[in-house]
Amino acid sequence: MSDNKSDRLKARLARGFGDRGPAELAATRQMVETIRQTYELWGFEALETPFIEYTDALGKFLPDLDRPNEGVFSFQDDDEQWLSLRYDLTAPLARYVAENWDRVPKPFRSYRFGPVFRNEKPGPGRFRQFLQFDADTVGSGSVMADAEMCMMAADTLEALGIPRGSYAIKVNNRKVLDGVMEAIGLGGDEGAGRRLTVLRAIDKLDKFPVEEIAKLLGKGRLDESGDFTKGADLDLASIDRVIKFTGWLDHGVGSSNTTLVNFEAAVGNSELGLEGVRELAEIAAIVESSGYADRIRIDPSVVRGLEYYTGPVYEAELTFEVKDEDGKPIRFGSVGGGGRYDGLVARFRGEPAPATGFSIGVSRLQAALQALGKGAAEPAGPVVVLVMDKERTGDYLALARSLREAGIPAEIYLGSSGMNAQMKYADRRRSPVAVIQGSNEKEAGEVTVKDLVLGKEMSKKIEDRAAWTEARAGQVTVPEAKLVETVREMLARY
After folding, report:
1. Tens of pLDDT along 108-129?
2. Torsion angle, CA of 300/301/306/309, rounded to 10 degrees?
3. Domain of 455?
4. Other Cβ atoms closer than 10 A to 282
5. Domain total for the chain?
6. Would you say residue 85 has pLDDT above 80?
């Protein structure tokens, strides 16, 4: 092998992806378990689909670009079929339900968790791989199913420790939005492309100033990198009408009933728009009668950028502020969303298959929980059994085995260093306890157990090295038979 440094591979992380350590993984595991328990309380059951689907199964319901499958990672297999990494968890669900239509119960209530992939330009807070946790009901056209998703979203946020008043579940309806599109001359198939551009522009209201949204509704927008996004090419009057409809000037003000009255006026004579208003009124009534009206509201700014939504759409938004590293206030905004997509399963079957679902952005929500001080603590490492005599490896393995048989994570040191280096290793492993058995302890049938957490605390109070050595902080010597009992007592302190 060449020693030339120029010939060596460079260790580098791919752009838009991230490594995750034990603390972050522990926080994710804890959060996901809470979400799972909440979803199951509402009667949803687990389903897992592959990371990879046939590209045509993902369809045209993808990113903010003209080409149907732009934005996904795709490749051909050995029989020249195009495959893609899943863009979200909804399209694979639609494929699964269509493929198993005759044997799944209807409505079919399921939840899924896992990574999704976006072949898009990475940036701050914008990754090419991230985690989602979805719940969907397939086979029910009732707005009760939509209202239920919103109420379950509220329950989930509170179960995770986000207090009432620090979040809002916002609801809109794509039929109302389509009614507004008709009012500005973008109804029918001929206006579909520009209509989608308008919807995606509105969906960015939480990211860009209103002036930038106006550019996306007009000729287009040039971003800081020099990339140009083509706009919807609306005239000034239509741009003004769309922005006013979103409630930008009085965002978040007014009751759901007031918003519904404004919606009815905005859609004019559009029957589709009026149908959307009626559905929202029904959701508002369900929410009110169920005791969720203080957490769920009708809000015109909710759009959801994907084309497959056909009715009610909703977002979970965090409303509290935290400070960044520079002391500037920031808001996390949306941490989840979803809506009704009655046409997605029907693509495979050629018959109606109503569906609605909600997706949580796990990574974003996890960051918000950490900002609230509700993230999981860094997990403790295993008990480390030090190897004082390499000829007695079997004895040390036996000590570690006795701990593991009692359900206590344990390992023996596998390196070749002395005692001080082994103690440093245990510290880096975040080990709460170390087990030491030299030849004298072995002859006496004893073992020394060291409470590393207590030892650290005591070391802050004892400045004299001789006094520290004499104190043997946090350390006890016990018969081998009491090893498990002693370690348990030490672990129980923390």
Report:
1. 999 999 999 988 888 776 789 9
2. -20
3. 383-492
4. 16
5. 2
6. yes
